[in-house]
Write a structure and sequence with these properties.
Blueprint: H1 3-23, H2 29-59, H3 61-82, H4 88-97, E1 98-103, E2 106-111, E3 127-133, E4 136-138, H5 143-154, H6 156-160, E5 165-166, E6 169-170, E7 172-173, E8 182-186, E9 189-192, H7 197-210, E10 215-221
Antiparallel strand pairs: 1-2, 3-4, 3-10, 5-6, 7-9, 8-9
Helix pairs in contact: 1-2, 5-7
Length: 222
Amino acid sequence: MKIEELEQEITKLRNEIDKDTIELENVPERFVSVVKGELKAKENRLIDLELKLDDLIENGITDRLQKPIDELQEIINSFILDFQFQYPQDKEMFINQITFEENDDELLIGLKPKEKSTNRLNKYSKDLLKVTIDNNIIQEAKTTDTFIKTLRHFSIEKVKSLNLVFLGVPLIAEYNHDKYQQKQISNNQFVLTQVSKEKKKEILEYIAKKFNHDIKIEFVKK
């Protein structure tokens, strides 16, 4: 049963319960127990339907939210590309430090609070990706480089054959997208890099499973 059908059934059942509750006052005494039994059965049926509706809504929430997430991602990407940051470090810190906080029905944007540190070099330290695959360790100075090097370990052509798509863009594309960040790895191949470290980890683990590779992925301090 679809969500719309369940909602209609629930509304109909609620109306019947309200009507039966009112009419119960005018039911002859000898029929009261029978009507109460029917009313109780409808109330139990209503509870079952409401639970089923909650399950359907919960199960489909990821798919329903993907479209607004994609649109928000596109807006953010366009802003980052177009905004004139005063220094290159400002852009990097903006990307790494921006946070979203719920405030009733609003979404507030802010920056992560500064952490006290006696070591200035650790102030802007970031977690890097460390990949152990088939007894080989891949850990570059940048997460994106580790990600791409691991893709090469699988074979770019094999990864491309999986037809993985994120944000509407192929993971391995034959064109340079004008809004999403990619890294060119050959004349006609571009790797989508506009994904979080966590998503990169998830992608690599998925590919490893597809091609039966032993893989271990960790986040380590820079």
